[in-house]
Design a protein that fits this description.
Blueprint lengths: L17 H4 L3 H23 L9 H13 L1 H16 L3 H6 L7 H28 L1 H20 L4 H29 L5 H27 L7 H9 L1 H10 L7 H6 L3 H12 L5 H21 L6 H4 L1 H18 L3 H14 L5 H24 L1 H4 L2 H23 L10 H16 L2 H11 L3 H33 L6 H17 L9 H7 L14 H13 L8
Helix pairs in contact: 2-14, 2-26, 3-8, 3-9, 3-13, 4-8, 4-9, 4-10, 4-17, 6-7, 6-8, 6-23, 7-8, 7-10, 7-11, 8-9, 8-22, 8-23, 9-10, 9-18, 9-22, 13-14, 16-22, 16-23, 17-18, 17-23, 18-21, 20-21, 20-24
């Protein structure tokens, strides 16, 4: 094994600027050369020592961490979905003297999304300073406060403040959980690990729906109908806040913080399968060298994301995948599906029952996808097939609604509900899990916190805020024509961008993805190292079927 003297690589001083950081390039070239040649000749042999995943305790531990951290995603789903049942409560509407299509309802939803925009952006600062684990814990604590304020609201202002605080917390959690999961995952199962975030978002929607459905039976005279669903979320948020004390920090953040021994210990605990000790050591060296090179070649701050061409492209793709997710229409359906069911003739508790069944479909499809498909067929193909299928489903939904402008229950009503169900199932087999995975894995370490904060805050939450505000008007004034806003965007913008600009990342380590998108950092990779040669050996090792090792 090649010995890499990483201690001789001096960390860049804080006052370093772009003008003189390029002089550090030569210091790293020889080390990069040794590291990558080592990978080229031995990576395949080392990685074939892994055991079957069913016997891999590292994978079991990894999944356990990802599932617990994904309680943050559960809160995302619950707090996003709970308002579907709250605005269906007559007691709630009477208490705040409003209707389910009024600007007040739009404001309650959009203030939540607006808070999430700032929460996600602020999360980039917290994550780089205090770590991935601490960011999740802070988000959970703030979410508890928001839940209490919403449940205890006795006037509109208090409800809006509670929604803003809860939104801020969910914004923090929505960007930090996928980053935490991706930095803990191994290349061969990152789709499964990060896909658990979307899985728990769906579970959150399910729980919010059935909690709301049960509370609805307390009767329109009782405020329990809407106060209990809003209060319920305080329980999982408090659990997450306390539980994060015992979860480890990600190995990449520990290594970047010069806590090398601790980083190696956690990396080994996550990825060691009983026989691949040399592979874990090689992975540690690759992570260490990548982070050192990025630190040496760039200055800290937000602007570096836009100044480095390779990183600017990756930031754009990470943001666009979130924008495209919103333009599938999935969140509009999630927020206002009870209104959509009313337009198809389903009223009263029936629309809540249908909403409950709807919210169960997505997580089932998502679980199937992340378990059997995500790490086999990759990221790009599910996105392309998904956007085509969702567009067809929305066209069919629009056609059915155009034949039922009076909102009466007809023979086509069941078909209308079925196509809404198709949207969530297709979404859960494509954009749902893939968008979070792709966003987190294509960002280089130096900007992963701030990059995911920007992509989530702007691409996801800002666009979601727009749709939350305009959708009540659109559904009321445009009716069935409203769906064609999504159809037009998907065909004219989303599909071409996916086809021509998105790149496949399946089976690559986070450091190998650096190679795929261009020279690491600001050109720290030696020019005489062929990216295809390195990627050809390492990625092949990830994808091979496990087999017995020789004695």
């Amino acid at each position: 094994m090649v010995s890499l003297d990483t201690n001789r690589l001096e960390a860049p001083r804080s006052e370093s600027t772009f003008s003189h950081l390029t002089s550090i390039h030569s210091t790293y070239k020889d080390s990069w050369h040794s590291c990558l040649l080592f990978n080229k000749h031995t990576y395949k042999q080392l990685y074939t020592t892994r055991l079957s995943w069913t016997l891999n305790m590292g994978k079991a531990y990894n999944i356990g961490l990802a599932c617990f951290a994904a309680i943050g995603s559960f809160l995302f789903g619950y707090d996003s979905g709970v308002m579907t049942d709250v605005i269906a409560s007559k007691n709630f509407l009477n208490f705040f003297d409003t209707t389910d299509t009024s600007p007040i309802v739009g404001a309650i939803n959009s203030t939540f999304n607006g808070g999430a925009v700032f929460g996600a952006l602020f999360g980039g600062v917290i994550m780089d300073k205090y770590g991935r684990r601490m960011t999740i814990g802070i988000g959970a604590l703030i979410c508890t406060v928001g839940a209490v304020l919403q449940a205890a609201a006795y006037h509109l202002a208090m409800m809006l403040i509670g929604r803003i605080i809860a939104g801020f917390a969910v914004g923090l959690l929505s960007m930090s959980v996928p980053v935490y999961q991706s930095e803990c995952a191994s290349p061969k199962n990152r789709g499964l690990i990060v896909g658990l975030a979307q899985q728990m978002i769906g579970v959150g929607f399910i729980v919010s729906t059935w909690v709301g459905y049960g509370s609805h039976h307390m009767g329109d005279h009782s405020a329990f109908q809407w106060r209990f669903p809003l209060a319920f979320q305080a329980l999982p948020s408090a659990l997450l806040c306390v539980g994060m004390i015992w979860l480890p920090e990600t190995p990449r953040h520990l290594i970047a913080s010069d806590r090398l021994e601790e980083g190696m210990k956690i990396l080994r605990k996550l990825h060691y399968d009983g026989q691949n000790d040399d592979w874990v050591k090689a992975e540690f060296q690759e992570i260490k060298m990548t982070i050192d090179a990025e630190k040496a070649a760039t200055a800290p701050g937000w602007l570096v994301m836009f100044k480095v061409p390779q990183w600017r492209k990756r930031l754009a793709l990470g943001t666009l995948v979130q924008v495209f997710t919103q333009f599938t229409g999935i969140n509009v359906i999630g927020y206002y599906q009870t209104i959509m069911y009313e337009s198809l003739g389903f009223t009263g508790s029936k629309k809540l029952l249908v909403a409950g069944i709807y919210n169960c479909c997505g997580p089932i499809a998502n679980l199937f996808f992340i378990t059997f498909i995500a790490d086999r067929i990759g990221r790009k193909r599910p996105l392309i097939y998904g956007i085509l299928a969702i567009t067809v489903a929305l066209i069919c939904e629009s056609a059915i609604n155009s034949q039922n402008v009076d909102g009466e229950k007809t023979g086509l009503s069941i078909a209308g509900v079925a196509f809404l169900f198709c949207v969530t199932i297709i979404f859960s087999l494509s954009f749902g899990p893939v968008s979070w995975t792709y966003m987190a894995e294509i960002m280089p370490y130096q900007i992963r916190g701030k990059g995911c904060a920007f992509a989530t805050g702007i691409g996801n939450w800002l666009v979601a805020t727009f749709w939350a505000q305009v959708s009540p008007y659109g559904l009321k004034e445009l009716g069935w024509k409203f769906y064609f806003l999504f159809v037009a965007w998907n065909l004219v913008i989303t599909l071409p961008v996916l086809l021509f600009f998105f790149r496949e990342t399946k089976g690559l380590s986070l450091e190998e993805i650096d190679l795929m998108f261009g020279d690491r950092a600001l050109g720290n990779l030696p020019n005489d190292i062929e990216k295809s040669a390195v990627m050809g050996t390492t990625s092949l090792a990830h994808e091979e079927e496990p087999h017995k090792t020789e004695a």
